[in-house]
Hints:
Residues 1-22 form the signal peptide. This is Transporter substrate-binding domain-containing protein. Residues 44-253 form the Solute-binding protein family 3/N-terminal domain. InterPro entries: Solute-binding_3/MltF_N. This protein has helices at 2-17, 47-59, 70-79, 123-128, 144-155, 165-174, 184-194, 225-240, 243-249, 254-260; strands spanning 30-34, 63-67, 84-88, 98-106, 109-113, 134-137, 159-162, 179-182, 200-203, 212-219. It is α/β, with parallel strands linked by helices. The chain folds into 2 domains: 29-106 and 211-260, Periplasmic binding protein-like II (D-Maltodextrin-Binding Protein, domain 2, 3-Layer(aba) Sandwich), CATH 3.40.190.10; 109-203, Periplasmic binding protein-like II (D-Maltodextrin-Binding Protein, domain 2), CATH 3.40.190.10. The longest helix has 16 residues, at 2-17.
Amino acid sequence: MKWAIQCCMLCALTAMAVPAQAFDCGKKAIKLAFYEFGLLYDQGLGIDKEIVDELKRRTHCHFHVQVMPRARIWADLASGALDMSVSGIQTPERDQFAWFIPYLSLKNYTLLDATLASQVKTAEAFLQNDKTQFGIVRSFRHGKQQDAFIARMQALNRVQESPDVGALFGKLKEGRVQGVFAPPVVFRHQLRKLNIEPQLLVQDWSPHEKGIPHGLILAKASFSETQMQAWQGEISAMRADGTLRRIYRQFLPEPEVAQLLDF
């Protein structure tokens, strides 16, 4: 019996002495790029910054971080000049050079001039009011139903394009457009920044349409499938233990947090 106890103690001590397998970070600092986009990332703060900080804490990987325009990010991921980025949308074209690990879902809601509240409650009603203009950011995807609506408005020459979100919401504030599409991470940021919340309404013109998954982007030139699965495991753990919800609740109210987690 004494021998058995000593053997068990020795086995336990041996197990304690074996270190946990280190996370495979690769052989160099990971080159990661953020892009400015509302509550996701703005002047060094945001949801994406919190996500990356948590991944650093869990994996102990070293990152070289910079802020870049989105077009440059995609080009550098494709060429292998960049290793990783955040909040990216997966497409068949992008699958050729990158892995995608979703961690939030973004759905576009309608921001509408409050003076139209009694007249407009649906996309069709907006279409029927020929005095209204709709604003979009050039090249943005919005969702199946939203993009179909925009195509119909463009056919009527009632769409104004803007180069970025700031210019788009500037037009909305000035009354040059009467409606725009934007996800909560964008419109909550812009409403506070421009102090225009009282003059706008938020409507959901596609209540049965889910948001578009956005996720961590890993360049295939930098990460193997096995490495990608390890990063996927970290994101899954953050979802399971409530870390993602905790991060999102720092920036958005609970109903919108639930929508972000629906991916």
